[in-house]
Design a protein that fits this description.
By secondary structure, this protein is an alpha+beta fold. The protein folds into two domains: about 1-40 and about 75-180, no CATH class; about 190-365, Histidine kinase-like ATPase, C-terminal domain (Heat Shock Protein 90), CATH 3.30.565.10. It is built from seven helices and nine strands, in the order αββααβαββαββααββ. The chain has helices at about 5-40, 70-145, 155-180, 195-210, 230-245, 290-295, 305-315, and strands at about 45-55, 55-65, 190, 215-220, 225, 255-260, 265-270, 320-325, 330-340. It has a five-stranded mixed beta sheet. It has a two-stranded antiparallel ribbon with strand order 1-2. Strands 3-5 form a two-stranded antiparallel sheet.
Length: about 375
């Protein structure tokens, strides 16, 4: 909405308000004056007499006409007051216009700056979307051509398929940003949480292998969630797994596990990384927060500290929660919980601080694998 019509309405409203106040004051003064004059009116001249009507005595009371000077004075004063009320409208509106202009100027300037910032943000977002679409299309085409090479071994083919799925998910994210300006979540289709865990592990096998990290998926073979957005859950799990691969020490194990507890389905990412000190637990999901080990390891990168914030937003859009279990030097487990029924109670899976888990069903699945 343009600020000009809003300013006009504001100033007119202030002017009319001042005019109304002036009218109320004048009417109040006029009422008080009339009451005082009525009390000061001379008492009419009353005369009492007797007469006979058809032989019946009758008492006759007569009043002499009162002094009409007070009534004429009241009429004159009321007339002048009406004229004064009409005349007061013009200066009241003018004063209101001036006062409101002075009072609302900082607000108008702040709103103008906010509108300019929003236009600039939209312009930059459009530029980023445009610059992403072309390389994504090129990458997708090249990966499809590479996947058609019959000489590929199975490991390479799996890596190419994982890259294709990641590129496709990124393309959908870019399309959401282009159409809506934000990530969209649609929970009407449902998903298989166990399949998503295996897919996330497949997508991150390459980066994990490059850091000599063993990445594995354990738990339920099939875990249907009746209401869920597959792409959104894949993004949330991908953020957790990517962080673990980036921060866990080489030679360690990262376990992506899943299962069902009561009315909740869960998926957890457990690493053997540096962990997070207890005082920082309350801040891990804040926008822009990064742990000390994260900052030390990625001094040359452009990490923004958004992954955990986005993960929590996507999971909460499903009516779910994200929990954290971590101790410095002993690793970290992030778990996302998705409701399986409308009766699902958060207190069954999350502590009162809405941060730590109330139950840890993944504990039995995260023991180091034999021979690794």
């Amino acid at each position: 909405m343009s600020t000009r019509p809003r300013n006009l309405r504001t100033r007119l409203a202030v002017g009319v308000t001042l005019s109304t106040l002036a009218i109320v004051l004048l009417v109040g003064a006029a009422t008080a004056a009339l009451a005082e004059w009525r009390a000061a009116d001379p008492v009419p001249d009353t005369q009492i007499g007797a007469a006979q009507v058809n032989g019946v005595p009758v008492l006759v009371v007569t009043e002499a006409a009162g002094d009409d000077v007070a009534g004429d004075a009241r009429s004159a004063v009321l007339g002048w007051m009406l004229v004064a009320l009409g005349v007061s409208l013009v200066p009241s509106v003018a004063v209101g216009w001036f006062v409101s202009a002075r009072l609302t100027k900082p607000i108008d300037e702040a709103m103008a700056r906010a509108a300019a910032d929003e236009r600039d943000r939209k312009r930059r977002l459009d530029e980023v979307i445009h610059e992403l679409r072309t390389p994504l299309a090129v990458a997708g085409t090249n990966l499809e051509l590479a996947a058609d090479d019959i000489t590929l071994d199975n490991d390479t083919r799996h890596l190419i398929d994982a890259a294709r799925r990641a590129a496709d998910r990124m393309r959908r994210t870019v399309d959401d940003l282009a159409e809506h300006g934000s990530l969209q979540v649609s929970t009407k289709d449902g998903l298989d949480l166990a399949a998503e865990c295996r897919a996330v592990v497949a997508e991150h096998t390459g980066p994990a292998r490059a850091r000599t990290i063993h990445l594995r998926a354990v738990g339920a073979h099939r875990l249907p969630v009746p209401e869920g957005d597959r792409a959104a859950v894949r993004t949330a799990l991908g953020n957790l797994t990517s962080n673990a691969v980036r921060l866990a020490p080489g030679g360690s194990t990262i376990t992506v596990s899943c299962g069902e507890t009561g009315d909740w389905a869960w998926a957890a990412v457990t690493d053997e990384g540096p962990g997070i000190v207890a005082p920082h637990h309350a801040h891990v999901f804040e926008r822009g927060w990064r742990g000390r080990h994260d900052r030390d390891r990625d001094r040359g990168d452009q990490q923004r500290g958004l992954g955990l914030t986005i993960t929590r937003q996507l999971v909460e859009a499903h009516g779910g929660v994200v929990t954290l279990e971590s101790e410095e030097g002993l690793g970290t487990t992030f778990a996302l919980w998705l409701p399986l029924a409308p009766t699902a109670n958060e207190l069954d899976v999350i502590d009162g601080d809405r941060l730590h888990p109330a139950t840890r069903p993944w504990a039995a699945l995260t023991a180091p694998p034999v021979g690794v």
